[in-house]
């Protein structure tokens, strides 16, 4: 007995369901391994610690800004901060002081005590004791290197301008003789002047050599004539 149309339709739908199920199984993404409860607690604890450290750093920065703003209106020339054990906080003091245009130094609070403090100056006093580079703070090292770079760029710019000025002076010599009017400027370049000067000297040397040779030949001729007589 041949299958009826309804039976064929059911078989076709069953086949399509099997194909779709196979496709879904093939492209099904593998589930991520579940994180353990202990790992979750540790990750959350680390996140909270980072947020706490960030808030504390922001509060410390605001505190230093408030103290330096108050120091700005005072007649004192210096203010001292305890040398913080954390390098980030020490750097913050130097950085905020630089924003106010002040100078900072790491010094001892009293002579020979060994206790370090960070001193902020409105106007830097003269220090007769030069510090070694390795004794400077990270901020002072960066600031010193920046100033050295600026000084080198200024020196290169000045040398370039001086060279251009010297070349212009050689190329355009303006003289003022006894007469009232000025002599027109020399429009030749430095290279042209140098080349023409060398050519002139070579021509003068050649003319001098020819003159000496001619004079020598004349003297020899006169001596010969004298012998004949």
From TrEMBL:
Domain spans labelled R3H: 58-123
Give me the ranges of the annotated region Disordered.
Answer: 195-229
Q: Which InterPro entries match?
A: R3H_dom, R3H_dom_sf
Q: Basic and acidic residues bias located where?
A: 195-211
* Signal sequence range: none
Which SUPFAM superfamilies did the record assign?
R3H domain (SSF82708)
Gene Ontology molecular-function annotations: nucleic acid binding
Protein name listed in UniProt: R3H domain-containing protein
